[in-house]
Amino acid sequence: MKVAIGQDSHRIDYENKEKKLMLGGVEFKEEYSLNGNSDADVVLHAITNAVSGITCKNVLGKISDDMCANGITDSEEYLKEALKYLNENIVHLSISIECKVPKISPKIDDMRKNIARILNISENSIGITATTGEGLTEFGKGNGVSVFAIITVD
Hints:
Layout: E1 2-13, E2 21-23, E3 26-28, E4 33-34, H1 42-55, H2 62-69, H3 75-83, E5 90-98, H4 108-119, E6 126-131, E7 144-153
Parallel strand pairs: 5-6
Antiparallel strand pairs: 1-4, 1-7, 2-3, 5-7
Helix pairs in contact: 1-3
């Protein structure tokens, strides 16, 4: 068995009303989005980094930058690229999200379902928790979203 951790964070862009806020491949109907060249889906980025921790093939960086330059801005595609290098079976995925906004709890089931589809594993193998961190960090103050993902493979 192997275990790896992935992390990502993005600042909230309260000015861009055109871009959709995506977390875990699920659209949140908010009046703001996250800064980034792609859709800035920090949940899928953290999972991609966790997969890269297993495969030792970093996708977020040059590979995703090249994909983005070619018009591929959907973070699901970056995760699928990372999965191409994964030879093990995913046993479990744990995701921890820190932010003041948006409210995560109402969308947890939708995120679990979508992530399970992408990873081709059971929804019961994915845990998602959310916290405001009592407002102690910039994320808890409403300035961004931070995500840690821990993946276990066999």
